[in-house]
Specification:
The strands form 4 sheets. Strands 2, 3, 4, 9, 10, 11, 12, 13, 14, 15, 19, 20 and 21 form a 13-stranded antiparallel β-sheet that branches. This protein starts with 13 loop residues before the first helix and ends in a 15-residue tail after the last strand. Helix 2 runs antiparallel to helix 3 and helix 2 (55-66) runs antiparallel to helix 6 (166-179). A hairpin with a 2-residue loop joins strand 5 and strand 6. It is of the alpha+beta class and 614 residues long. Residues 1-27 and 603-608 have low confidence and may be disordered.
Amino acid sequence: MRRTRLLAGVSTSVAALLVTVLIAPSADARTRPVQPPPKSPTATGYGGAVSTVDPDATRIGIDVLRRGGNAVDAAVAAAAALGVTEPYSNGVGGGGFFVHYDAKSRRVSTIDGREAAPAAYREDTLTENGRPIPFADAVTSGLSVGVPGTPLTWDRAVRRWGTRSLRQNLAPAADLARRGFVVDATFRQQTADNEARFRDFPATRALFLPNGELPEVGSVLRNPDLARTYDLLGRGGVAEFYRGGIGRDVVRTARRPAVDPASPRMVRPGLLTTADLASYTAPERRPTRVSYRGLDVYGMAPPSSGGSTVGEALNVLERSDLRGAPAAQYLHRYLDASNLSFADRNRWVGDPAFGEVPLAGLLSQRYADSRACLLDPARALPTPQPPGDPAVRAEGCTAGGRTTPEPREGLSTTHLTTADRWGNVVSYTLTIEQTGGSGITVPGRGFLLNNELTDFDFVPLTPGVPDPNLPAAGKRPRSSMAPTIVLRDGRPVLALGSPGGATIITTVLQTLLGRLERDLSLVDAIAAPRASARNGTPQAEPAFLASPEAAELRAMGHAFTSTPEIGAVTGIEFGRHGLLIAAAEPARRGGGSAAVVRPSRRAGGPGRVRTIGR
Protein backbone atom coordinates (compact mmCIF):
# COMPACT_ATOMS: atom_id res chain seq x y z
CA MET A 1 0.00 0.00 0.00
CA ARG A 2 1.26 3.47 -0.49
CA ARG A 3 3.01 4.78 2.57
CA THR A 4 4.47 8.25 2.76
CA ARG A 5 5.54 10.59 5.57
CA LEU A 6 5.93 14.32 5.77
CA LEU A 7 8.64 16.49 7.15
CA ALA A 8 8.21 17.93 10.55
CA GLY A 9 8.67 21.70 10.76
CA VAL A 10 12.00 23.47 10.61
CA SER A 11 14.29 22.04 13.28
CA THR A 12 15.27 24.24 16.15
CA SER A 13 18.64 22.57 16.18
CA VAL A 14 21.31 24.08 13.93
CA ALA A 15 22.93 20.65 13.56
CA ALA A 16 19.66 19.10 12.48
CA LEU A 17 19.15 21.91 9.96
CA LEU A 18 22.59 21.31 8.48
CA VAL A 19 21.92 17.59 8.12
CA THR A 20 18.65 18.32 6.37
CA VAL A 21 20.24 20.80 4.00
CA LEU A 22 23.09 18.45 3.12
CA ILE A 23 20.70 15.73 1.99
CA ALA A 24 18.90 16.99 -1.08
CA PRO A 25 15.33 15.73 -1.37
CA SER A 26 14.99 13.01 -3.97
CA ALA A 27 11.20 13.16 -4.09
CA ASP A 28 8.74 15.94 -4.62
CA ALA A 29 4.97 16.11 -4.58
CA ARG A 30 2.62 18.20 -6.64
CA THR A 31 -0.04 19.64 -4.42
CA ARG A 32 -2.65 19.96 -7.19
CA PRO A 33 -5.03 17.01 -6.76
CA VAL A 34 -4.93 14.45 -9.56
CA GLN A 35 -7.38 11.64 -10.20
CA PRO A 36 -5.83 8.28 -9.23
CA PRO A 37 -5.87 5.58 -11.91
CA PRO A 38 -9.01 3.46 -11.89
CA LYS A 39 -8.85 0.03 -10.35
CA SER A 40 -11.17 -2.95 -10.31
CA PRO A 41 -10.91 -5.94 -7.97
CA THR A 42 -12.05 -8.36 -10.69
CA ALA A 43 -11.40 -8.97 -14.37
CA THR A 44 -12.33 -11.85 -16.67
CA GLY A 45 -10.88 -12.59 -20.08
CA TYR A 46 -8.04 -14.07 -22.06
CA GLY A 47 -4.42 -13.61 -23.11
CA GLY A 48 -2.93 -13.12 -19.64
CA ALA A 49 -3.82 -11.60 -16.29
CA VAL A 50 -2.25 -9.60 -13.47
CA SER A 51 -3.54 -9.03 -9.95
CA THR A 52 -1.77 -6.73 -7.48
CA VAL A 53 -2.70 -4.25 -4.75
CA ASP A 54 -2.00 -1.26 -6.99
CA PRO A 55 -3.42 -0.08 -10.35
CA ASP A 56 -0.09 1.28 -11.63
CA ALA A 57 1.66 -2.03 -10.98
CA THR A 58 -1.18 -4.00 -12.56
CA ARG A 59 -1.19 -1.70 -15.60
CA ILE A 60 2.56 -2.15 -16.07
CA GLY A 61 2.30 -5.93 -15.76
CA ILE A 62 -0.51 -6.07 -18.34
CA ASP A 63 1.44 -3.85 -20.72
CA VAL A 64 4.42 -6.23 -20.51
CA LEU A 65 2.11 -9.13 -21.39
CA ARG A 66 0.64 -7.20 -24.34
CA ARG A 67 4.14 -6.53 -25.62
CA GLY A 68 4.97 -10.23 -25.70
CA GLY A 69 6.47 -10.74 -22.26
CA ASN A 70 5.53 -13.78 -20.23
CA ALA A 71 4.23 -14.21 -16.67
CA VAL A 72 7.73 -13.91 -15.18
CA ASP A 73 8.48 -10.69 -17.05
CA ALA A 74 5.13 -9.27 -15.94
CA ALA A 75 5.74 -10.31 -12.33
CA VAL A 76 9.17 -8.65 -12.16
CA ALA A 77 7.92 -5.49 -13.89
CA ALA A 78 4.91 -5.28 -11.56
CA ALA A 79 7.07 -5.94 -8.49
CA ALA A 80 9.44 -3.14 -9.48
CA ALA A 81 6.43 -0.84 -9.88
CA LEU A 82 5.23 -1.81 -6.40
CA GLY A 83 8.65 -0.70 -5.16
CA VAL A 84 7.60 2.78 -6.34
CA THR A 85 3.97 2.89 -5.22
CA GLU A 86 4.15 0.50 -2.25
CA PRO A 87 7.60 1.37 -0.86
CA TYR A 88 6.59 0.64 2.74
CA SER A 89 5.72 -2.97 1.89
CA ASN A 90 8.46 -4.05 -0.51
CA GLY A 91 11.40 -2.95 -2.63
CA VAL A 92 14.96 -3.77 -3.57
CA GLY A 93 15.92 -3.38 0.08
CA GLY A 94 13.92 -6.49 1.01
CA GLY A 95 13.23 -10.07 -0.03
CA GLY A 96 10.54 -12.60 -0.86
CA PHE A 97 9.51 -15.94 -2.33
CA PHE A 98 8.83 -16.53 -6.03
CA VAL A 99 6.71 -19.53 -7.11
CA HIS A 100 6.59 -20.32 -10.85
CA TYR A 101 4.59 -22.77 -12.94
CA ASP A 102 6.08 -23.65 -16.33
CA ALA A 103 3.38 -24.62 -18.80
CA LYS A 104 5.70 -26.52 -21.10
CA SER A 105 7.14 -28.86 -18.45
CA ARG A 106 4.11 -28.61 -16.11
CA ARG A 107 6.58 -28.11 -13.29
CA VAL A 108 6.36 -25.83 -10.26
CA SER A 109 9.64 -24.26 -9.13
CA THR A 110 10.50 -21.70 -6.46
CA ILE A 111 13.19 -19.12 -5.75
CA ASP A 112 14.11 -18.35 -2.16
CA GLY A 113 14.90 -14.63 -2.01
CA ARG A 114 14.62 -14.44 1.78
CA GLU A 115 16.95 -12.00 3.53
CA ALA A 116 19.90 -13.53 5.39
CA ALA A 117 21.67 -12.56 8.59
CA PRO A 118 25.17 -11.05 8.34
CA ALA A 119 28.16 -13.29 9.10
CA ALA A 120 28.68 -11.42 12.38
CA TYR A 121 25.27 -12.50 13.72
CA ARG A 122 25.20 -14.74 16.80
CA GLU A 123 22.44 -16.42 18.78
CA ASP A 124 22.47 -13.58 21.32
CA THR A 125 22.75 -10.69 18.85
CA LEU A 126 19.17 -9.54 19.50
CA THR A 127 19.66 -9.48 23.26
CA GLU A 128 21.32 -7.07 25.69
CA ASN A 129 22.32 -8.00 29.22
CA GLY A 130 20.69 -11.37 28.69
CA ARG A 131 17.28 -9.91 27.80
CA PRO A 132 15.63 -9.42 24.39
CA ILE A 133 16.05 -5.99 22.84
CA PRO A 134 12.68 -4.20 22.94
CA PHE A 135 10.91 -5.14 19.74
CA ALA A 136 10.23 -1.56 18.61
CA ASP A 137 13.91 -0.69 19.11
CA ALA A 138 14.99 -3.66 17.02
CA VAL A 139 12.54 -2.75 14.24
CA THR A 140 13.98 0.73 13.77
CA SER A 141 17.66 -0.15 13.68
CA GLY A 142 20.51 -1.19 11.44
CA LEU A 143 20.74 -4.36 13.50
CA SER A 144 17.53 -5.73 11.97
CA VAL A 145 18.69 -5.29 8.36
CA GLY A 146 19.29 -8.57 6.56
CA VAL A 147 21.01 -9.08 3.21
CA PRO A 148 18.33 -8.10 0.64
CA GLY A 149 17.25 -10.84 -1.74
CA THR A 150 14.84 -9.08 -4.08
CA PRO A 151 17.30 -7.90 -6.78
CA LEU A 152 18.82 -11.36 -7.15
CA THR A 153 15.36 -12.97 -7.17
CA TRP A 154 14.36 -10.78 -10.12
CA ASP A 155 17.58 -11.53 -11.95
CA ARG A 156 17.35 -15.29 -11.40
CA ALA A 157 13.70 -15.43 -12.42
CA VAL A 158 14.24 -13.45 -15.62
CA ARG A 159 17.33 -15.44 -16.61
CA ARG A 160 15.66 -18.76 -15.80
CA TRP A 161 12.19 -18.29 -17.27
CA GLY A 162 11.76 -14.77 -18.69
CA THR A 163 11.74 -13.63 -22.30
CA ARG A 164 12.88 -10.03 -21.78
CA SER A 165 15.99 -8.60 -20.15
CA LEU A 166 16.04 -7.28 -16.61
CA ARG A 167 16.63 -3.82 -18.07
CA GLN A 168 13.46 -4.05 -20.17
CA ASN A 169 11.44 -5.26 -17.19
CA LEU A 170 12.68 -2.47 -14.88
CA ALA A 171 12.24 0.35 -17.40
CA PRO A 172 8.48 0.91 -16.85
CA ALA A 173 8.92 1.18 -13.09
CA ALA A 174 11.84 3.58 -13.54
CA ASP A 175 9.62 5.75 -15.71
CA LEU A 176 6.85 5.57 -13.09
CA ALA A 177 9.28 6.66 -10.38
CA ARG A 178 10.36 9.64 -12.49
CA ARG A 179 6.83 10.70 -13.41
CA GLY A 180 5.36 9.91 -10.01
CA PHE A 181 2.22 8.24 -8.77
CA VAL A 182 -0.99 9.58 -7.27
CA VAL A 183 -1.10 9.41 -3.47
CA ASP A 184 -4.17 7.63 -2.12
CA ALA A 185 -5.68 7.54 1.37
CA THR A 186 -3.93 4.29 2.30
CA PHE A 187 -0.51 5.64 1.37
CA ARG A 188 -1.09 8.85 3.31
CA GLN A 189 -2.28 6.93 6.37
CA GLN A 190 0.67 4.56 6.30
CA THR A 191 2.98 7.56 6.08
CA ALA A 192 1.21 9.16 9.01
CA ASP A 193 1.56 5.95 11.03
CA ASN A 194 5.34 6.11 10.49
CA GLU A 195 5.77 9.87 10.76
CA ALA A 196 7.64 9.98 14.07
CA ARG A 197 10.39 7.60 13.04
CA PHE A 198 10.57 8.82 9.42
CA ARG A 199 11.33 12.31 10.72
CA ASP A 200 14.30 10.96 12.66
CA PHE A 201 16.15 9.88 9.49
CA PRO A 202 16.99 12.82 7.22
CA ALA A 203 17.10 10.72 4.03
CA THR A 204 13.73 9.13 4.80
CA ARG A 205 12.27 12.49 5.74
CA ALA A 206 13.47 14.10 2.52
CA LEU A 207 12.08 11.26 0.42
CA PHE A 208 8.72 10.58 2.02
CA LEU A 209 7.91 13.90 3.71
CA PRO A 210 8.39 16.33 0.84
CA ASN A 211 8.12 20.00 1.77
CA GLY A 212 7.83 19.01 5.41
CA GLU A 213 4.24 17.84 5.17
CA LEU A 214 2.28 14.66 4.71
CA PRO A 215 1.45 14.27 1.02
CA GLU A 216 -2.12 15.15 0.23
CA VAL A 217 -4.41 12.53 -1.26
CA GLY A 218 -4.43 13.20 -4.99
CA SER A 219 -0.96 14.75 -5.06
CA VAL A 220 1.80 13.21 -7.18
CA LEU A 221 4.84 11.75 -5.44
CA ARG A 222 8.03 11.25 -7.45
CA ASN A 223 11.17 9.27 -6.64
CA PRO A 224 13.92 10.11 -9.13
CA ASP A 225 16.56 8.43 -6.94
CA LEU A 226 14.80 5.09 -7.27
CA ALA A 227 14.46 5.65 -11.02
CA ARG A 228 18.24 6.03 -11.21
CA THR A 229 18.71 2.90 -9.08
CA TYR A 230 16.52 0.88 -11.45
CA ASP A 231 18.38 2.32 -14.46
CA LEU A 232 21.69 1.31 -12.93
CA LEU A 233 20.47 -2.22 -12.16
CA GLY A 234 19.19 -2.49 -15.71
CA ARG A 235 22.45 -1.36 -17.30
CA GLY A 236 24.96 -3.03 -14.99
CA GLY A 237 22.95 -5.96 -13.65
CA VAL A 238 22.48 -6.94 -10.03
CA ALA A 239 26.26 -6.96 -9.54
CA GLU A 240 25.77 -3.22 -9.01
CA PHE A 241 23.80 -4.15 -5.89
CA TYR A 242 25.78 -7.09 -4.55
CA ARG A 243 29.31 -6.01 -5.51
CA GLY A 244 29.03 -2.40 -6.61
CA GLY A 245 28.21 1.11 -5.51
CA ILE A 246 24.59 0.47 -4.54
CA GLY A 247 25.71 -2.30 -2.22
CA ARG A 248 28.38 -0.15 -0.62
CA ASP A 249 25.75 2.47 0.11
CA VAL A 250 23.46 -0.18 1.59
CA VAL A 251 26.22 -1.42 3.90
CA ARG A 252 27.25 2.09 4.93
CA THR A 253 23.66 2.99 5.74
CA ALA A 254 22.91 -0.17 7.70
CA ARG A 255 26.13 0.04 9.72
CA ARG A 256 25.89 3.75 10.46
CA PRO A 257 22.27 4.92 10.11
CA ALA A 258 22.21 8.71 9.77
CA VAL A 259 19.92 9.98 12.54
CA ASP A 260 18.82 13.57 12.99
CA PRO A 261 21.06 14.99 15.75
CA ALA A 262 17.99 16.54 17.35
CA SER A 263 16.30 13.16 17.71
CA PRO A 264 16.41 11.34 21.04
CA ARG A 265 15.99 7.98 19.26
CA MET A 266 18.74 5.45 19.90
CA VAL A 267 19.31 3.56 16.66
CA ARG A 268 21.51 0.50 16.98
CA PRO A 269 24.10 0.07 14.22
CA GLY A 270 23.95 -2.92 11.90
CA LEU A 271 26.40 -5.72 11.21
CA LEU A 272 26.03 -5.97 7.42
CA THR A 273 29.23 -6.05 5.33
CA THR A 274 30.09 -5.95 1.64
CA ALA A 275 31.23 -9.59 2.00
CA ASP A 276 27.73 -10.52 3.17
CA LEU A 277 26.26 -8.99 0.02
CA ALA A 278 28.81 -10.62 -2.26
CA SER A 279 28.19 -14.10 -0.81
CA TYR A 280 24.38 -13.95 -0.92
CA THR A 281 22.52 -16.53 -3.01
CA ALA A 282 18.86 -16.92 -4.00
CA PRO A 283 18.56 -20.70 -4.29
CA GLU A 284 15.94 -22.58 -6.24
CA ARG A 285 14.13 -24.85 -3.78
CA ARG A 286 11.80 -27.77 -4.28
CA PRO A 287 8.26 -26.59 -3.51
CA THR A 288 6.04 -28.14 -0.89
CA ARG A 289 3.21 -30.26 -2.24
CA VAL A 290 0.12 -31.86 -0.76
CA SER A 291 -2.78 -33.61 -2.46
CA TYR A 292 -6.17 -32.22 -1.46
CA ARG A 293 -9.47 -33.43 -2.91
CA GLY A 294 -7.69 -34.55 -6.08
CA LEU A 295 -5.80 -31.26 -6.46
CA ASP A 296 -2.07 -30.67 -6.04
CA VAL A 297 -1.37 -27.68 -3.81
CA TYR A 298 2.15 -26.27 -4.18
CA GLY A 299 3.75 -23.77 -1.84
CA MET A 300 7.02 -22.41 -0.49
CA ALA A 301 9.35 -24.66 1.48
CA PRO A 302 11.45 -23.60 4.51
CA PRO A 303 12.71 -21.13 5.49
CA SER A 304 9.13 -20.15 4.75
CA SER A 305 6.57 -21.89 6.92
CA GLY A 306 3.80 -20.99 4.47
CA GLY A 307 3.79 -24.13 2.36
CA SER A 308 4.20 -26.55 5.26
CA THR A 309 1.59 -24.94 7.51
CA VAL A 310 -1.07 -24.45 4.82
CA GLY A 311 -0.33 -27.98 3.60
CA GLU A 312 -0.58 -29.60 7.03
CA ALA A 313 -3.86 -27.81 7.76
CA LEU A 314 -5.32 -29.01 4.46
CA ASN A 315 -4.25 -32.56 5.29
CA VAL A 316 -5.85 -32.29 8.74
CA LEU A 317 -9.10 -31.29 7.01
CA GLU A 318 -8.86 -33.84 4.18
CA ARG A 319 -11.26 -36.31 5.77
CA SER A 320 -13.77 -33.71 7.01
CA ASP A 321 -16.98 -33.01 5.10
CA LEU A 322 -16.54 -29.26 4.79
CA ARG A 323 -18.74 -28.90 1.74
CA GLY A 324 -21.86 -30.21 3.43
CA ALA A 325 -21.16 -28.91 6.93
CA PRO A 326 -23.10 -25.98 8.40
CA ALA A 327 -21.16 -22.72 8.18
CA ALA A 328 -20.25 -22.62 11.88
CA GLN A 329 -18.99 -26.22 11.82
CA TYR A 330 -16.91 -25.53 8.72
CA LEU A 331 -15.32 -22.48 10.39
CA HIS A 332 -14.80 -24.40 13.65
CA ARG A 333 -12.78 -27.05 11.86
CA TYR A 334 -10.82 -24.46 9.89
CA LEU A 335 -9.85 -22.64 13.11
CA ASP A 336 -8.76 -25.77 14.97
CA ALA A 337 -6.83 -27.18 12.00
CA SER A 338 -4.99 -23.83 11.88
CA ASN A 339 -4.20 -24.04 15.59
CA LEU A 340 -2.73 -27.54 15.27
CA SER A 341 -0.61 -26.71 12.23
CA PHE A 342 0.72 -23.55 13.91
CA ALA A 343 1.70 -25.53 16.99
CA ASP A 344 3.85 -27.72 14.74
CA ARG A 345 5.12 -24.79 12.69
CA ASN A 346 6.42 -22.92 15.74
CA ARG A 347 8.24 -25.99 17.04
CA TRP A 348 9.72 -27.48 13.89
CA VAL A 349 10.17 -24.98 11.03
CA GLY A 350 13.28 -22.86 10.46
CA ASP A 351 16.10 -22.43 7.97
CA PRO A 352 16.88 -25.99 6.76
CA ALA A 353 20.58 -25.12 6.40
CA PHE A 354 20.82 -24.81 10.20
CA GLY A 355 18.94 -27.85 11.39
CA GLU A 356 16.73 -30.62 10.11
CA VAL A 357 13.16 -29.59 9.35
CA PRO A 358 10.91 -32.71 9.33
CA LEU A 359 9.11 -31.46 6.24
CA ALA A 360 8.12 -34.86 4.85
CA GLY A 361 6.57 -35.81 8.17
CA LEU A 362 4.75 -32.51 8.61
CA LEU A 363 3.22 -32.89 5.14
CA SER A 364 2.33 -36.58 5.40
CA GLN A 365 -1.32 -37.59 5.51
CA ARG A 366 -0.50 -40.16 8.18
CA TYR A 367 0.78 -37.49 10.52
CA ALA A 368 -2.13 -35.17 9.72
CA ASP A 369 -4.60 -37.92 10.55
CA SER A 370 -2.93 -38.40 13.93
CA ARG A 371 -3.47 -34.70 14.60
CA ALA A 372 -6.96 -34.50 13.09
CA CYS A 373 -8.37 -37.00 15.56
CA LEU A 374 -7.83 -34.36 18.27
CA LEU A 375 -10.62 -32.30 16.70
CA ASP A 376 -13.92 -32.30 18.55
CA PRO A 377 -16.93 -31.30 16.44
CA ALA A 378 -18.65 -29.82 19.50
CA ARG A 379 -15.82 -28.08 21.31
CA ALA A 380 -12.88 -25.83 20.43
CA LEU A 381 -9.41 -27.10 21.18
CA PRO A 382 -7.86 -25.31 24.15
CA THR A 383 -4.94 -23.13 23.09
CA PRO A 384 -2.05 -23.07 22.97
CA GLN A 385 -1.90 -26.66 21.79
CA PRO A 386 1.36 -28.60 22.21
CA PRO A 387 3.11 -29.67 19.01
CA GLY A 388 3.17 -33.22 17.81
CA ASP A 389 6.26 -35.08 16.65
CA PRO A 390 6.15 -36.09 12.99
CA ALA A 391 9.10 -38.43 13.50
CA VAL A 392 7.09 -40.66 15.84
CA ARG A 393 4.93 -43.22 14.08
CA ALA A 394 1.97 -43.12 16.41
CA GLU A 395 -1.32 -44.92 16.27
CA GLY A 396 -4.28 -42.70 17.14
CA CYS A 397 -4.02 -39.11 18.32
CA THR A 398 -0.68 -37.44 18.94
CA ALA A 399 0.08 -34.46 21.10
CA GLY A 400 3.48 -33.32 22.22
CA GLY A 401 4.71 -31.98 25.49
CA ARG A 402 5.33 -28.30 26.04
CA THR A 403 3.58 -25.58 24.09
CA THR A 404 5.38 -22.90 22.11
CA PRO A 405 3.97 -19.35 22.14
CA GLU A 406 3.34 -17.46 18.93
CA PRO A 407 6.29 -15.21 17.93
CA ARG A 408 5.84 -11.67 16.68
CA GLU A 409 5.92 -10.80 12.98
CA GLY A 410 5.45 -7.65 10.95
CA LEU A 411 2.14 -7.20 9.16
CA SER A 412 3.35 -5.55 5.96
CA THR A 413 4.40 -7.28 2.71
CA THR A 414 2.63 -7.44 -0.66
CA HIS A 415 1.62 -10.16 -3.09
CA LEU A 416 1.09 -10.32 -6.85
CA THR A 417 -0.14 -13.01 -9.22
CA THR A 418 0.43 -13.18 -12.98
CA ALA A 419 -0.43 -15.52 -15.86
CA ASP A 420 0.32 -15.35 -19.58
CA ARG A 421 -1.23 -16.59 -22.80
CA TRP A 422 1.03 -19.65 -22.87
CA GLY A 423 -0.22 -20.88 -19.49
CA ASN A 424 2.76 -19.89 -17.32
CA VAL A 425 1.92 -18.64 -13.82
CA VAL A 426 3.70 -16.70 -11.06
CA SER A 427 2.64 -16.34 -7.43
CA TYR A 428 5.07 -13.93 -5.73
CA THR A 429 5.12 -12.55 -2.18
CA LEU A 430 7.72 -9.88 -1.34
CA THR A 431 8.40 -7.68 1.65
CA ILE A 432 10.58 -5.35 3.70
CA GLU A 433 8.85 -6.74 6.85
CA GLN A 434 7.29 -3.98 8.98
CA THR A 435 5.17 -1.30 7.34
CA GLY A 436 8.00 1.07 6.44
CA GLY A 437 10.67 -1.56 7.07
CA SER A 438 13.47 -0.32 9.29
CA GLY A 439 12.48 3.28 8.53
CA ILE A 440 15.99 3.81 7.14
CA THR A 441 16.33 5.03 3.53
CA VAL A 442 19.58 4.54 1.62
CA PRO A 443 20.61 8.14 0.76
CA GLY A 444 20.51 8.86 -2.95
CA ARG A 445 19.12 5.42 -3.82
CA GLY A 446 15.40 5.90 -3.17
CA PHE A 447 14.51 2.77 -1.17
CA LEU A 448 14.03 1.67 2.43
CA LEU A 449 16.00 -1.09 4.11
CA ASN A 450 14.24 -4.11 5.55
CA ASN A 451 13.94 -5.00 9.23
CA GLU A 452 13.51 -8.68 8.39
CA LEU A 453 15.81 -10.06 11.08
CA THR A 454 13.16 -9.25 13.68
CA ASP A 455 11.48 -12.42 12.37
CA PHE A 456 14.04 -14.40 14.36
CA ASP A 457 13.08 -15.43 17.86
CA PHE A 458 15.21 -13.11 19.99
CA VAL A 459 15.50 -15.79 22.71
CA PRO A 460 14.18 -19.37 22.85
CA LEU A 461 10.39 -19.26 22.91
CA THR A 462 10.17 -22.17 25.35
CA PRO A 463 13.07 -22.70 27.79
CA GLY A 464 14.52 -26.17 27.43
CA VAL A 465 12.88 -26.80 24.03
CA PRO A 466 15.01 -26.50 20.86
CA ASP A 467 14.07 -23.42 18.86
CA PRO A 468 14.69 -23.68 15.08
CA ASN A 469 14.38 -19.92 14.57
CA LEU A 470 17.15 -18.44 16.70
CA PRO A 471 19.63 -16.05 15.00
CA ALA A 472 22.87 -17.33 13.46
CA ALA A 473 25.44 -16.18 10.93
CA GLY A 474 24.05 -16.40 7.40
CA LYS A 475 20.74 -17.81 8.61
CA ARG A 476 17.41 -16.88 7.05
CA PRO A 477 14.63 -16.14 9.55
CA ARG A 478 11.46 -18.16 9.37
CA SER A 479 8.79 -16.56 7.22
CA SER A 480 5.01 -16.95 6.91
CA MET A 481 4.84 -15.96 3.25
CA ALA A 482 2.66 -18.46 1.40
CA PRO A 483 2.58 -17.93 -2.39
CA THR A 484 0.49 -20.84 -3.63
CA ILE A 485 -0.31 -22.52 -6.96
CA VAL A 486 -2.96 -25.24 -7.26
CA LEU A 487 -2.92 -27.77 -10.11
CA ARG A 488 -5.25 -30.48 -11.35
CA ASP A 489 -3.67 -33.14 -13.56
CA GLY A 490 -0.64 -30.90 -14.06
CA ARG A 491 -2.59 -27.81 -15.15
CA PRO A 492 -3.23 -24.66 -13.08
CA VAL A 493 -6.54 -24.21 -11.33
CA LEU A 494 -5.80 -21.40 -8.91
CA ALA A 495 -2.91 -19.18 -7.81
CA LEU A 496 -2.96 -16.78 -4.89
CA GLY A 497 -1.17 -15.27 -1.91
CA SER A 498 -1.42 -12.48 0.64
CA PRO A 499 0.52 -10.12 2.89
CA GLY A 500 -0.08 -9.98 6.64
CA GLY A 501 2.73 -11.55 8.71
CA ALA A 502 1.65 -14.82 10.32
CA THR A 503 -1.94 -14.12 9.20
CA ILE A 504 -0.75 -14.78 5.63
CA ILE A 505 -1.03 -18.50 6.30
CA THR A 506 -4.57 -18.42 7.65
CA THR A 507 -5.67 -15.93 4.97
CA VAL A 508 -4.44 -18.20 2.18
CA LEU A 509 -5.96 -21.25 3.88
CA GLN A 510 -9.35 -19.61 4.45
CA THR A 511 -9.47 -18.28 0.88
CA LEU A 512 -8.58 -21.70 -0.55
CA LEU A 513 -11.26 -23.39 1.54
CA GLY A 514 -13.85 -20.79 0.62
CA ARG A 515 -13.23 -21.37 -3.07
CA LEU A 516 -12.66 -25.14 -3.05
CA GLU A 517 -15.11 -26.25 -0.35
CA ARG A 518 -17.83 -23.63 -0.09
CA ASP A 519 -18.17 -22.85 -3.81
CA LEU A 520 -17.64 -19.15 -3.34
CA SER A 521 -16.40 -17.31 -6.40
CA LEU A 522 -12.77 -16.32 -6.13
CA VAL A 523 -13.58 -12.68 -5.44
CA ASP A 524 -16.18 -13.67 -2.82
CA ALA A 525 -13.71 -16.04 -1.15
CA ILE A 526 -11.23 -13.16 -1.03
CA ALA A 527 -13.81 -10.72 0.34
CA ALA A 528 -15.31 -13.07 2.96
CA PRO A 529 -14.97 -11.91 6.61
CA ARG A 530 -11.84 -13.43 8.12
CA ALA A 531 -10.67 -14.98 11.33
CA SER A 532 -7.10 -16.08 12.04
CA ALA A 533 -6.22 -18.81 14.57
CA ARG A 534 -2.51 -19.28 15.23
CA ASN A 535 -2.45 -21.44 18.37
CA GLY A 536 -3.48 -18.55 20.58
CA THR A 537 -6.54 -16.34 20.88
CA PRO A 538 -7.93 -16.03 17.35
CA GLN A 539 -8.21 -12.62 15.73
CA ALA A 540 -11.30 -11.76 13.73
CA GLU A 541 -12.56 -8.88 11.63
CA PRO A 542 -15.63 -6.92 12.80
CA ALA A 543 -17.81 -8.40 10.04
CA PHE A 544 -16.85 -11.89 11.17
CA LEU A 545 -17.60 -11.08 14.82
CA ALA A 546 -21.02 -9.71 13.86
CA SER A 547 -22.03 -12.89 12.00
CA PRO A 548 -24.40 -15.52 13.44
CA GLU A 549 -21.61 -18.08 13.04
CA ALA A 550 -19.40 -16.16 15.47
CA ALA A 551 -21.98 -16.62 18.21
CA GLU A 552 -22.11 -20.36 17.51
CA LEU A 553 -18.31 -20.53 17.57
CA ARG A 554 -18.20 -18.77 20.94
CA ALA A 555 -20.65 -21.34 22.27
CA MET A 556 -18.16 -24.03 21.20
CA GLY A 557 -15.41 -22.31 23.21
CA HIS A 558 -13.73 -20.10 20.62
CA ALA A 559 -12.79 -16.65 21.93
CA PHE A 560 -11.81 -13.82 19.59
CA THR A 561 -10.03 -10.50 19.66
CA SER A 562 -11.09 -7.88 17.14
CA THR A 563 -8.74 -6.57 14.46
CA PRO A 564 -9.68 -4.14 11.66
CA GLU A 565 -8.61 -6.33 8.75
CA ILE A 566 -6.67 -9.47 7.94
CA GLY A 567 -4.64 -9.97 4.76
CA ALA A 568 -4.99 -8.58 1.24
CA VAL A 569 -5.24 -11.43 -1.29
CA THR A 570 -4.54 -11.30 -4.99
CA GLY A 571 -5.19 -14.34 -7.16
CA ILE A 572 -6.06 -15.80 -10.54
CA GLU A 573 -8.41 -18.68 -11.34
CA PHE A 574 -8.02 -20.69 -14.55
CA GLY A 575 -11.23 -21.63 -16.34
CA ARG A 576 -12.03 -23.62 -19.41
CA HIS A 577 -10.67 -22.79 -22.87
CA GLY A 578 -8.09 -20.33 -21.54
CA LEU A 579 -10.51 -18.19 -19.54
CA LEU A 580 -8.79 -16.24 -16.73
CA ILE A 581 -10.54 -14.82 -13.68
CA ALA A 582 -8.29 -12.32 -11.88
CA ALA A 583 -9.34 -11.07 -8.45
CA ALA A 584 -8.00 -8.84 -5.70
CA GLU A 585 -9.22 -7.40 -2.42
CA PRO A 586 -12.25 -5.19 -3.00
CA ALA A 587 -11.72 -3.12 0.17
CA ARG A 588 -8.91 -4.23 2.51
CA ARG A 589 -5.85 -1.96 2.45
CA GLY A 590 -7.63 0.33 0.03
CA GLY A 591 -8.57 -2.41 -2.41
CA GLY A 592 -6.56 -4.11 -5.12
CA SER A 593 -6.41 -4.09 -8.90
CA ALA A 594 -7.01 -6.98 -11.29
CA ALA A 595 -6.82 -6.89 -15.08
CA VAL A 596 -6.64 -9.16 -18.13
CA VAL A 597 -5.10 -8.64 -21.55
CA ARG A 598 -8.37 -9.20 -23.45
CA PRO A 599 -11.48 -8.60 -21.33
CA SER A 600 -14.52 -10.73 -21.98
CA ARG A 601 -18.18 -10.44 -21.04
CA ARG A 602 -18.77 -14.12 -21.53
CA ALA A 603 -20.15 -16.18 -18.68
CA GLY A 604 -17.69 -17.78 -16.32
CA GLY A 605 -16.62 -14.70 -14.39
CA PRO A 606 -17.19 -13.92 -10.74
CA GLY A 607 -20.95 -14.17 -11.04
CA ARG A 608 -20.95 -17.77 -12.21
CA VAL A 609 -19.21 -20.20 -9.89
CA ARG A 610 -17.67 -23.41 -11.18
CA THR A 611 -16.98 -26.25 -8.74
CA ILE A 612 -13.25 -26.90 -8.70
CA GLY A 613 -12.90 -28.84 -5.46
CA ARG A 614 -13.18 -32.65 -5.42
